[in-house]
TrEMBL record:
InterPro entries: ATPase_NBD, ROK, ROK_cs. Pfam families: ROK (PF00480). Belongs to the ROK (NagC/XylR) family. It comes from Sphingopyxis macrogoltabida (Sphingomonas macrogoltabidus). It comes from the Bacteria. This is Fructokinase.
Amino acid sequence: MTHKHLIAAIETGGTKLLYRLADPEGAVIGEGRFDTVAPDASIALLTGAVRRVMPPGATLVAVGVASFGPIVVDPASPRYGRMLATTKAGWSGYDLRGAIAAELGAPVVVDSDVNAAALAEQQIGAGRGQRLVTYVTVGTGIGGGLSIAGETLKGNPHPEIGHIRMVRRPGDRFASGCPFHADCAEGLVAGPAIRRRLGDIADLADAPDVLALAADYLAQLCATLTLAWSPDCIVLGGGVLGAHGLIDAVRTELQAQLGTYGAAADIDPATYLVPAALADAGLEGAMLMARAAAGK
């Protein structure tokens, strides 16, 4: 493989689109960001940008795509890379993989954005050196992925941890922000729900009652993942988790909720729940996916 053989990474999110073009060794040739718009327009922005920064005579040999979900991520499925029902207008049923492949003329591998982030945090981020790493992001939505020795968990279609049901705190009558579920984590403590709970208060750190509630629900989520997946660590990312004191509060709540049952007694929350190390973990994961595909 020569320097004229290039790989690309694309991340599609609910509000932003990212791309990066690089050589297989990681040298970046071009990258950028756009706002998410309608599906065809979004793909035109991304693929047009990739083509513009391609050096003359270069060949694109693989594209890694980290996408918001739900999306089919099983390569054996005839619907591989196709969006499923989503609240994002126009995206339900969209053939994301097919559209990108048609525009760029290269093999395209697809995974969820949070699976890609889990892969990146395990390989080059906060979970480096760990075999089994869970990634949880709390932002516009709540999502999570799992990377086991460099392979992500792909199901039907992929983990959707944001929709795990929470046990509500006494007195919490907040109307869920999720149109599908009344008591799921995303509906109760994703970014939009937190902003509604805060009202005129600008910062979560200035609202101790809301912070304590968020810590409770996020600890419930992490406890569920701990008991179900037994990860070596849980990497926490997303804008909400950047609030001062929130991760420490989740650590305290997690320890209280798990108690001393089984392996939970051996967990040190300070090293088990760790902040994400990568600013664009999904894009980094997409680049790792593209590099692996190019090497096959």
